[in-house]
Amino acid sequence: MSRLLTIRRAGPGMTVQDMGREGYLSFGLSRGGAADRQALYEGAALLAQDPAMAAIEMAGMGGEFEADTDLRIALTGAPMRAGIDGTAIAWNASHFLPKGARLSIGAADEGVYGYLHVGGGIATPERLGGRSAHLAAGLGNALGAGDTLEIGADRNAEAPSMCLPPDPRFDGGPVRLVPSLQTSFFAQAELDRFETTTFQRDARGNRMGVRILPEGDGFHSEAGLSVLSEVIVPGDVQITGDGTPFVLLAECQTTGGYPRIGAVLPADLPRVAQARPGVALRFSFVTLEEAVAIDARLRAHLINLSAAVRPLTRDPADIRNLLSYQLISGVTAGDDLEL
Amino acid sequence: MTQDWPQIRTAGFDGFLVSFGDSLSEPANRAALAFRAAVARAGWDGILDTSTSLVSAYLQFDPHWRDHAAMRAALETLLGERDWYAADLPEGRSLWRVPTVYGTDIAPQLAEAAAAAGMSVQEAITSISETRVRVQTIGFAPGQPYLGTLSSAWDIPRQTALTDKVPEGALTVAIRQLVLFSVSTPTGWRHIGQTAFRLFRPDAEVPFVLRPGDEVLFEPTDAETLHNMRAAGPDGGAVREDIA
A214-253: per-residue pLDDT in tens? Predict the structure, then answer.
């Protein structure tokens, strides 16, 4: 029997996302997938399921949801105010969403991309081997009110609600990058200045990339603008014509002509994606060897997430799991959640 | 080729780029295509994806599976196996004849581009439409080809300011190349022609229509004919034949 999640209200940047699509680079299709991939691992750990399962990505603002079946959910990424039938529920946690109950998710308190995961995963039809919307490629659409999404079978439907300690990456800060193929186009003085400059995330940005504004002058390469178009990957820091850097994210183009000063490590890319306009970012180069060690620690961290989850206690939502049949009709309207 | 090429460089944390030059040339383009195909054929463990740009082959790999030194050594060995600049073009290539409306209000920068190339509008149409261009790489957007090489008159720069949006199927020109857009996007390339040829068909059996090495003739047609061809299907009147 099919299980459906209905979207009653949606913020402007809500899409289905998974790990993206591998194997299409030579056809000009970038991998895409969740802007904050770490959040997919966190959601999977909370629900004890495969991180490859698709979730709903919410940019800055959530929405309202209702399922035609009892459902487990988890909330990760940028913390947003959330409640079920008017009762506030914890972020970085999994919860029981009874059939017909209204899940409300408001604005992000900090960061940009919040995630709603469901037990069994979002099971919309795969296209080119993935479920994620790749809006730049014209694959999939932003979700809107009235949309219904198929949900997969939940093999752990009876599992209790869990929580994870927050892993803050929502307020900018230090970002590590490695030298890349065009770093040598920049004079050492420019590279030094890049490391000592504080940048602000600009208002211009989306899932393809974010513009970052330097305090002070822009950056210039010796090669100028005559560089042959070359391969681009997520994390590349591209210096555009006016000297302003752009950090490329999951849904970036696959080739580009602007020189790249370096490439942000996968471990720190969520920190860039989650930086709101105005948030400060600073960059430092690490060697390839250091980068491999950092990435090994990230992988170990992601693998160990399932050991880090704890039962969600001292939270009214946990009690309600046991008594949900009594508490489906909320006592408040929940309007306070709609910020 | 000079001794500086080919060059192996790291690309980000988990990639290598093998470049066969720093400017576009036919041998370097063929070398990049052939080398990427050889990497794919080699079937090395830990390779996540491969692609080509105009003169480079890119590979993404898992550095925890095979470290950078070992990956570089494998690439060096493969590079030494033959003269990649002498490689043949890919096999099974196609010639596409793509009906194109040059200029008019649906491709508004033809006159401007012709002037930049020192030609009349009619000369520009003749020059572009009679050049059998080759797909040098697919990139930027899904299924989107960079095509060349046009005569030296077309060595015109990109615009400094971006055009807000060209539509899907737009034929654009700069630096002796054509780009046929597979999506609607801002661009610095000048919009000189319009086709109804859909290059990316995510739900079709062949989602990406063009392959590197394919050749294309952009044959002039009029707006009404193109309109009818667009209604007839995703090929937009384009016709394919095998290159023997």
Answer: 999 999 988 765 678 899 999 999 998 889 999 999 999 9
ipTM: 0.93
DSSP H or E run through B26: helix B26-42
Do B18 and B10 contact (CB within 8 A), yes or no?
A: no
Print the domain residue range for A252: 173-297
Residue A103 CA to residue A83 CA, distance in Å, equals: 6
Domain total of chain A: 2
φ, ψ (nearest 5 deg) of residue A335: -65, -25
* Structure tokens belonging to residue B15: 């990639």
Average pLDDT score, chain A = 91
Q: Residue B103: which of B124, B133, B131 has the closest Cα?
A: B124
Specify the amino acid at residue A327.
L
This prediction's pTM: 0.91
* Strands, sheet with A103-108, edge to edge from the N-terminal-most edge strand: A87-89, A80-84, A103-108, A63-67, A3-10, A148-151
Between CA B26 and CA B22 the distance in angstroms is 12
Looking at CA atoms only, how far is residue A111 from chain B in angstroms?
25
Query: What CATH code is carried by the domain that includes residue A288?
Result: 2.40.100.10
Domain B94-242: give its CATH superfamily.
Cyclophilin-like (2.40.100.10)
Contact criterion met (CB < 8 Å) for A292 and B36: no
Confidence at residue A169, expressed as pLDDT on a 0 to 100 scale: 96
Tokens for A15, please give them: 């899409």
A37 and A157 housed in the same domain:
yes
Is B138's Cβ below 8 Å from some Cβ in A? yes
Distance from CA of B220 to the nearest CA of A (A): 27
Shared domain for A180 and A113, answered yes or no, is: no
Reading the block at residue B235, the tokens are: 């090929």
Q: And the tokens for A280?
A: 């400060």
The fold of B7-86 is Gyrase A; domain 2 (3.30.1360)
DSSP string, B208-232: B---TT-EEEEEE--HHHHHHHHHH
Same domain flag for A292 and A178: yes
Does A28 contact B49 at a Cβ distance shorter than 8 Å?
A: no
Residue in A24, A228, A295 closest to B23 by CB:
A228
Query: Is residue A111 domain-shared with residue A214, that is, in the same domain?
Result: no
User: Minimal Cα distance from A294: which residue of B?
Assistant: B13
Q: Tell whether B50 lies on the interface with A, counting CB pairs under 8 A.
A: yes
CA atoms of B56 and B76, how far apart (whole Å): 14
Q: Shortest CB distance from B17 goes to which of A25, A229, A231?
A: A231
Nearest to B48 among A22, A265, A288 (CB): A22
Q: Phi, psi at residue B2, to the nearest 5°?
A: -80, 170
With a cut of 50, which residues of chain B have pLDDT below it? Answer: 1
